[in-house]
């Protein structure tokens, strides 16, 4: 009988390469929100994969990039911290994009990491197979990766194979979490992320990443339904208008979609009450960053 294996794996990579999509596929439930906009993931999220031979705890990091403001700074710190204390690092790239500045920055960060680093080339469903080899050669010349594995997180190609590769490098270890636990994040945080995801999906570039969602209250009502009250915080009055929409249409749509996901998560019917608040320049104020959960 082989020993049980377990370990912590950090997922790093530029925004939108498919980190959250990968984790959701592997974990099989929607815990990291996904969108086609950059910087969807701000906090580190742990997803736990468990089978009879291994347990892998994934840490989905915010896209590592050069910080532009305080929030950016915070996100880079989260990502760097995530690289310490893990058993291996998954560096994910988008097969469609060539080697770029963002990748160079990440590779510089990786130079100081003593753990195995895997290059995962995602979105291979989007490229011609002939284009894969030159890409592999290019990355090979920049860093000595333990393994290079092409996958499609969206379609699932080669994902099982990659999981087996990962398992080979895992140390023997205990099952840290019970097998039915898929994340260590409190529901409160996941609920706020689900609401923020709907805002990102439904609004355009005017409502970028200057949105935070604060859960004001979650409690069970007499009729057993759960009441969730949340504020959507934006930086400008004009953004508030967009989120509310004509005759409140946009906010209603955000609420309808978020309610469905939250009900799936909690396994019960909910009342969702949403407010929109303006908090000028919240991204540059440490005080507000703390209030909104971006703690170090
Ligand atoms: P993250 O920022 O790295 O977490 O990226 P996301 O997981 O949020 O994915 C960004 C976008 O890429 C989403 O629209 C995904 O549907 C898409 N995507 C992710 N993986 C794949 C893939 O393997 N193939 C294709 N075609 N699209 C993908
Ligand atoms: K994203
Ligand atoms: Mg993400």
UniProtKB/TrEMBL annotation:
Subcellular location: Cytoplasm; Cell membrane
Region listing for G5, in residue ranges: 151-153
SUPFAM superfamilies: P-loop containing nucleoside triphosphate hydrolases, Prokaryotic type KH domain (KH-domain type II)
Chain residues that bind GTP: 13-20, 60-64, 122-125
Keyword Nucleotide-binding: yes
Region (G3): 60-63
Alphabetical list of CDD domains matching this protein: Era, KH-II_Era
Membrane topology: Peripheral membrane protein
GO molecular function, one term: small ribosomal subunit rRNA binding
Region (G2): 39-43
Role noted for this protein: An essential GTPase that binds both GDP and GTP, with rapid nucleotide exchange. Plays a role in 16S rRNA processing and 30S ribosomal subunit biogenesis and possibly also in cell cycle regulation and energy metabolism.
Recorded family membership: Belongs to the TRAFAC class TrmE-Era-EngA-EngB-Septin-like GTPase superfamily. Era GTPase family.
Name listed for the protein in its UniProt record: GTPase Era
Gene symbol of the encoding locus: era
